Amino acid sequence: MVTVRDRPLVTVFSLGGTIASTNERGTEGVTPRLGAEELLAGVPGLDDFAELEPVAFRRTASGDLAFGDLVALAAEIGARFEAGTAGAVVVQGTDTVEETSFVLDLLVGAPNPVVVTGAMRNPTLAGPDGPANLRAAVRVAASSEARGLGSLVVLNDEIHAARFVAKTHTSSPAAFRSAPAGPVGWLVEDRPRFAVRTERLPGLPLPAGPVPPVALLTMTLGEGARLIEQVGALGYAGLVVESFGGGHVPSWNVPALERLAATIPVVLASRTGGGDILQATYGFPGSERDLIARGLIPAGFLNGPKARILLSLLLANGAGLDEVRKVFAGI
After folding, report:
1. Which of 121, 202, 226, 263 is most deeply packed, by most CB within 10 A?
2. CATH number of the domain where residue 315 is located
3. What pTM did the predictor assign?
4. Active site residue ranges
């Protein structure tokens, strides 16, 4: 671990997003303009507890990030850790934080802290939250207590595990929640406090090639099977179904799902945002027992977007159906 005068070395990667978004005089709307060095310069006192290494990795809205960007980022973080960096902070837009943090959770195998943060209020507004979130993220990344916890998300003085966290509000600074576990910790008087230590999920190798496309379909009242029937024809390598409740779909969708599950992995998640997929409670057509018996794979506690991340990376590493089932059985 590299230290400078007993300060751990923390690499800060900027990707863009609200925290980095400003505008020019006479223009409407903010866009990502600031890099890591400029963001760090706006937070006084960081070098009191960490030696900082800024890296302007991307400069974009988080909705424009893709698997290729995140695989490259995971590889770069891993290389920095091998060179002695103590922790990494990733600064990005909050729209996809719950997905990007989970990608890093799966692909960065080192025990060093990886902390993802951002902002809900851009720098042109009164009371932007970006500087406080960045300071808190660096504090956590520099903490030896954060080692071995996997990828973390730090906003609003709360510390969340990547596997649980989700954005639950369009504009509130308290937008991030972790169901069903809650935050694993918080910051008080500039100090990280950890109340829960989660066991790391089994990691995955960095994909050597493109990540295959996986579709995400949310069940709604009266939803028909037309989209399900087109998944294979559109070239998707897998499907995640966000079901009603504990794992239920309209009964008239069952035949199409069964046919599809015989050709590509179909994972069953819940649209509720919290709780495990049931496996042995209901027995009606379209229930979780019915769907699992027809070949669908329960997602455990993962929500739809995170189940899609896991399935995508498994397929990118050449996993067959049996391996996909085995991995999801451990969730």
Report:
1. 121
2. 3.40.50.40
3. 0.95
4. 18
